[in-house]
Amino acid sequence: MYKSIIRPLLFNFDPEGVHHFSFKSIKLMKQLGLTRLVKPVFNIEHKALEREVFGLKFKNPVGLAAGFDKDAKLYQELSDFGFGFIEIGTLTPKPQPGNPKKRLFRLKEDKAIINRMGFNNGGVAAAVSRLKKNKNVLIGGNIGKNKVTSNEEAFNDYKICFEALYDYVDYFVVNVSSPNTPNLRALQDKEPLTKLLAGLQELNKTISQKPILLKIAPDLTDEQLNDIIEIVQDTKIAGVIATNTTISRDGLQSSNKEEIGGLSGSPLRDRSTEVIRFLHQKSQGAFPIIGVGGIHSPQDALEKLEAGASLIQLYTGFIYEGPSLIKRINEEIIKQS
């Protein structure tokens, strides 16, 4: 029903407007008591789905990637669709509007999305107020810096978010790979990245120690990926999320393919899997990897798990394929077990 009726209807309207409409609709469903009908349809519990990764227990390996529920407004309701975990953010210390609209574009022929949102969010304090109401949803906190903060001062922004979220998330993700904040990707260079992650790890040790992951771009060279492996091992962070959106436009068919921003969806599938395989093989499986990028089918998910991912995340595939994709992936994992 989603792909035959709901999606064609929603795809007639502006994608960012549809996103906000969907949030309001799901909230209304909850108020009317209808969301209790969702959980039995989409949730599957099975021993073969359970995972223990970086010290956390996941009921299944399929998560929602950051960017969908930036401000932690819908994590409880979204978990009812069968996700094993929800990643909120990217959050910054201060609220910011993000880049000017229009900044979100569908590429229907390519089953893709281009976004140049620019870390639009209501600030970390507002998200924390909502996370205090969490009822047993495993949450990842994706953190970044404000646009006006220079790279030289970036650590302070990550520190503010880290400390504010510490009691309310289960793991952290350091986002230095979005292409939509000027100069942010320069923080992926070896020296500044090592300094940033080492600083957060030192802070982590003074509290109690929660898993810190690094989210990387798919556009890194093999040499840069080797640096990432070395940095992860030197700083002893918990793992890597591979990958964020790409600035590549290879092989696209859609008319708005030249829009500036990060590309997600099917065209990213193979490169994301290549990065996962490279990291896993070159590190000899030294750290867990969360695989994300172009997962639109159970087979896409299995490819990432077989390449070395311990967990996977959906975003664009969730939009194009609907919530049944989560269930179909989990059913296939059970079948393969």
From TrEMBL:
Binds 1 FMN per subunit. Substrate binds at residues 70, 115-119, 175, 180, 244-245. It holds the Pfam family DHO_dh. It comes from Leeuwenhoekiella palythoae. The gene is pyrD. This is Dihydroorotate dehydrogenase (quinone). The keyword Metal-binding does not apply. GO terms for cellular component: cytoplasm; plasma membrane. Keywords: Cell membrane, Flavoprotein, FMN, Membrane, Oxidoreductase, Pyrimidine biosynthesis. It is found in: Cell membrane; Membrane. Its cofactor is FMN. Catalyzes the conversion of dihydroorotate to orotate with quinone as electron acceptor. The active site is at residue 178. Belongs to the dihydroorotate dehydrogenase family. Type 2 subfamily. Residues 49-335 form the Dihydroorotate dehydrogenase catalytic domain. The lineage of its organism: Bacteria, Pseudomonadati, Bacteroidota, Flavobacteriia, Flavobacteriales. InterPro entries: Aldolase_TIM, DHO_dehydrogenase, Dihydroorotate_DH_1_2, Dihydroorotate_DH_2, Dihydroorotate_DH_cat, Dihydroorotate_DH_CS. Pathway: Pyrimidine metabolism; UMP biosynthesis via de novo pathway; orotate from (S)-dihydroorotate (quinone route): step 1/1.
